[in-house]
Amino acid sequence: MAFDVAIIGGGPGGYTAAAEAAGRGLSTVLFEAGKLGGTCLNRGCIPTKALLHEAEAGVTDAQAMIGKRDATVTALRAGVEKLMKARKVTVVNGFAQITGPGAIACNGEAFEARDIVVATGSAPSVPPIPGADLPGVYTSNDLLEDDSPLPRSIIIVGGGVIGMELALFFALEGSQVHVLEAMERILPPLDHEIAQRVAMHAKKRGIAIEASAKVTGISGEPGSMTIAYTNKKGAACEVCAEGVLIATGRRANTAGLFAEGTAPEMERGAIVADEAGRTDIGHLWVIGDARARNVQLAHVAEAQARNVIASIAGAEPPVDESVIPSCVYLSPEVATVGMTEDEAKAAGREVVCGKALTGANGKCLIEGSESGYAKLVCDAQTHVLLGAQLVCPRATDMIAELALAIRLGATAEQLAATIHPHPTISEMVGEAARAI
Predict the structure, then answer these.
(1) Catalytic residue among 192, 201, 283, 422
(2) Strands 2-8 and 103-106
(3) Disulfide check for 380: which of 124, 239, 350, 405 has CB 3.0–4.6 Å away?
(4) How many CB atoms lie within 10 A of CB 30?
(5) Annotated catalytic, 422?
(6) CA 231, 236, 237, 243 torsion: positive or negative?
């Protein structure tokens, strides 16, 4: 069977690419080895947030939480399936392998396409720790797809976004949580002030956090697991719990994707491409987590999907990929975009910052929010917005305004001149702008 475009991987990047290609009149085939929606929908972003929402609402019944998670995932997956049907995308369920230029094999059949887009996403990365493959050691995939009872105590190896979101969930459900982070602090990619604030809130919820902790081994059996590690002073330590979660990041999911001799340039299992998503093989493109040195976020994959399909169709890429907001679904939420104060200074920029605190915001007080802030980082001379960091309720919804402001080169004065409705948490943006 021959198509204009073949897309391998049915996650946010893949199904967006398929919808875009078909919408432009290109005959399109989409291959997915599992369920449409990929990691994000089935065992990542959506189930995590569904469980966190239920936990924050005080739901403790495991079956009720699982039911809400599954109902949300099923409804969204059905929406993706309807979209593919409406756009007349041919969906093939099976493991697809690229066998040559424009050639794909799946389920014993041969397919041809003028252009191939790889959107195979990523999988949990498990470091080579002795005992990491034991029963009782889980990845985020295991926990988010499993219906087993939650462990009453858990050790989380990795204090990044995935680790801290799941730490909050377990803490809200009454489990004892111990986080071990190898770096000097949790959430290492984020601003140090955010990491300090998140650590403070986590400890208030009873979450134990140890940074500069190097895990050396895991032993035991489900219900009685032990982790050996060295602490920041170099002393040998142990901690015990019913289960262990490995949350040390994700790796490109490209195993078996290319037949021998057909792979493009690779880097640690990820596919090397230029800024437009082109590989060193003609008409072979890559988007999302499978791309080397890429930001592993669903909305980045979706943006790249729109741009790559536009390029394939001979049109201008419609999305600006230079301004990428990031969100962490904690309590309070965290969202960032652009430069932090330290990053701007390291780049030689003179900056001025404005901050508004949750304690002075009516809506935050009404909702009983934990302490937090909205911080704007602007050029010292022009007051053009360079970056923003939010630690407050609704931060993940509010960050889009600031991403738009950065993209359009807006100034603190322009943000301050924009009326923000009262009482809302978004008023903090206006207050921070007025402070500048």
Answers:
(1) 422
(2) unpaired
(3) 350
(4) 29
(5) yes
(6) positive
